Amino acid sequence: MSHKVLMLPGDHVGPEIVAEADKLLRCLASEFGLAVELEYANLGGCGVDAEGAPLPDSTLALARDSDAALLGAVGGPEWDYIERDKRPERGLLAIRAALGLFANLRPALLDPELVNASSLRPEVVSGLDILIVRELTGGIYFGQPRGIRTRADGVREGFNTLVYGVDEIERIGRAGFEAARRRDGRLCSVDKANVLESSELWREVMEGLAGEYPDVSLSHMYVDNAAMQLVRDPRQFDVMVTGNLFGDVLSDCAAMLTGSIGMLPSASLDETGRGLYEPVHGSAPDISGQGIANPLATLLSVAMLLRFSLDEGELAQRVERAVARVLADGLRTADLGGGQGQSVGTAAMGDAVVAAL
Amino acid sequence: MSHKVLMLPGDHVGPEIVAEADKLLRCLASEFGLAVELEYANLGGCGVDAEGAPLPDSTLALARDSDAALLGAVGGPEWDYIERDKRPERGLLAIRAALGLFANLRPALLDPELVNASSLRPEVVSGLDILIVRELTGGIYFGQPRGIRTRADGVREGFNTLVYGVDEIERIGRAGFEAARRRDGRLCSVDKANVLESSELWREVMEGLAGEYPDVSLSHMYVDNAAMQLVRDPRQFDVMVTGNLFGDVLSDCAAMLTGSIGMLPSASLDETGRGLYEPVHGSAPDISGQGIANPLATLLSVAMLLRFSLDEGELAQRVERAVARVLADGLRTADLGGGQGQSVGTAAMGDAVVAAL
Ligand SMILES: CC(C)[C@H](C(=O)O)[C@@H](O)C(=O)O
Ligand SMILES: CC(C)[C@H](C(=O)O)[C@@H](O)C(=O)O
C-alpha cells in the first residue's frame, strides 16, 4: 500500500525548497523502495491568490486524505494588508486546528560542523540537542472569548483567553513524556504557575502523569527562567514541554541558539501519527527567486515525516546521515556562511543530499 | 525637605544586599548632601512570618507615604507549600498593583569589564545596552475572569484573561517613547498581533502614538521573532516596549545575555515618578547567609531610584561611575568569576563602591 504525502509549497522560498524535497522523496521511491504518492495543493498566500482562501477547501480535503503533509513556508509582504482572515498565517493556524495537530515537535540540534554559526560560545552550545514539545491547537491561540470591544467607560480594549482543559494538558503531556522516554529521559515542563491559574492546572496534571512514566524525570520551570536558562546553559535540557504561546517563543529562542535556523525541521502531529512537517524558518521574501535558500531544514522535515507518519525510521536515518555527510564534505548554502566551505545554491545542495543517500 | 525611602530587605540574600544599599545611601547623605530618611518594612516571606501576609498593611501604608522603595528580593523554599495568596511573590504582585507601578524599566547593559561572563560571543554582545519597558500592572497577570472551573462535560480547565485597554497601552507606550527619546531614539514594540486581538489593538495604539514622537523611530516585532533576535543580534535594539507577560520573558532573556544578572537593576514606576526599585536577580536561597551575594544590582537600583524618584541625576551618575570603577579595579564577587579578579564578598564590594564615590 502506497503512502500519500501532500506537498504544500506555499509562498516565496517555499516552492524552491519543496522542489528539493520532491527530488528526495522520488529518489527514495525509485532507489530505496519507498511506496509514496505525491499530491500538490495550495496553502498560504498562494491559496488566497489562486482560490480565495489561505486554506482552500480542496487543500483541506486532500490533507485529510493524506498520511502526511510537507509544507514549505507561508507569507510575504504582498498579503500584509489584506483582511485578517485571509492572511497566509491564518491558513497555517486553520490547518493545524482542522487536522487536530496538537503536538508540535521542534528539535534544536546543532550539527558539529556548524558550531561556529551560533552567536553563543562554542563551549556553551557544542553538542546541543533539545526537543521542544509545544501544544499547538489550544491555549491563547484558540481560546474564546476573544476580540476588541468597548468598555462601559467608552474605552476600547482587546482581550484573549488562555484556557487549557485537563484533557488537552494530558494529551500534550504524554507526548512530552513519550519523547523524553525515547531520548535522555528528562522532561522539563515550562509554565508560569506562580501567576496563572491555567499554569497551576498544567503543573498539577504534569505531576499526575509523572507516576505513569517512572523512567522519566520530570522538572518544572517558570517560562521567564526557561528563557534565561536557554541562553545561560542550553545543554541542561533534554525535552521541554509547554503550551502554545510559551512554546512559540521558547522554540524560536532555542532554534536561534544553533545559529542556523535554515537547518531546523519540525513536525505537528495528531493522535494517530498523521502530521504536517515544515522547516522552522519562514518564507524569506528577501531571498526568494534567487535559488539560494537552504533546503536542509525541509529535507530534515522529510526525515521526520518518514519516521513519524510513514513508520520508515531507517529511511529517515538515511536522510539525516546524508545531510550530515554533505555538511562534513564542506557544502554550505549562503545562510551557513557559504564562503567558508563550498558555496552552493538550493538545487545543488538538494542534489548533493540525494547523491549522498 | 527630606526624601523618604522605604527599605524592603525581603528574604534570603535580600537583607544582605540591602545592607549595602543602606551604607551607600547613608554615605550619600553624610558626604554628598542627599536629604533622605530611611524606613524599614517587611515584604515577601518575612512579611508572612512576622505579620501573616506577604504584603502587610503596615508595609503598604509606609510605601504610600514614601517617595520610593528599595526591594532586595522575595521568596524561598520555606514558603513553597503555603496557600497561594500567602506566597512571597504575591506580595510583589500586590504592591505593584496597589501603588500603580505600571512601568517596569529593565536595562540590560554589559559592562566592558564583564564581556567574558556572557555565554554569547564577545563580538555579538560587547557594548550591549538595551532598555526593556514592560507593562507591569495589567495584561494576563491581572485580567479577569480567571481561575479553575469544571466544564459542562465534567473536565476541569484553567483559564486566564489577557486584556489591555487603550488607556493602559497609551500609558506604557508613552513611557517607551519617552525612554527612547532620552536614548538612541529607536523603539521596538513587541506583540503577537498575527494571532492575538489584544496585540492587534496594542499595535494600533502604538502606531497612533508615533505621530506625537517624530524624533523616535517605531518598529514592531512579533514576540517569537524578538526572542530570536535577542539571541542572534541583541545590539540591534535600543528600547523595547511590551506587555506584562512578554516583558517578563524577554527581559529575563535580555538580562541573561549579559551573563551577569547579579549586575542588573530595575525600576517600577507610577505616573508621578514614585517607584519600587529592585535587582533583577532573585533571593538566591542557595547562597544566602554566606555573605557572598553580589550587591551591585542593588546599588545600581539605588542609582535608578536617585535618578527617577528623587531627581538626583548627578548622584545617580556618581554611583554608576563608582560601580564601573570597582569593576575596572578588578573587584569581583563569586558570581562574576571571583577567581579572575580580586575575589570579594558582599560587604567588601559595598565598601569599595562607597569608597569609590
Ligand atoms: C505564523 C505564526 C502564526 C506561527 C505561530 O505563532 O504559531 C509561527 O510563529 C510558528 O511558530 O509556526
Ligand atoms: C516573581 C514573579 C511573579 C515576577 C513576575 O513574573 O513578574 C518576576 O518574575 C519578575 O519578573 O519580577
Structure description:
2 copies of one chain form a homodimer. Chain A has 357 residues and is an alpha/beta fold. The first copy, chain A, has 2 domains: 1-105 and 264-357, Isopropylmalate Dehydrogenase; 129-257, 3-Layer(aba) Sandwich (Isopropylmalate Dehydrogenase), CATH 3.40.718. Helices cover 40% and strands 22% of the residues of chain A. Chain A is built from 12 helices and 14 strands. The first copy, chain A, has helices at residues 13-32, 45-51, 57-64, 88-98, 122-125, 166-182, 197-210, 223-232, 244-257, 296-308, 313-328, 346-355, and strands at 3-10, 36-40, 68-73, 103-109, 129-135, 147-150, 156-165, 186-191, 217-222, 239-242, 265-269, 275-279, 331-332, 342-343. A 10-stranded mixed sheet of chain A has the order 2-1-3-12-11-4-5-10-8-9, sandwiched between helices. A two-stranded antiparallel ribbon of chain A has the order 6-7. Chain A has a two-stranded parallel ribbon with strand order 13-14. The model of chain A has no long low-confidence stretch (mean pLDDT 96). The complex binds 3-isopropylmalic acid (IPM) (2 copies). One 3-isopropylmalic acid sits between chains A (89, 92-93, 248) and B (194-195, 224). Chains A, B: NAD(+) binds at residues 76-89, 282-294.
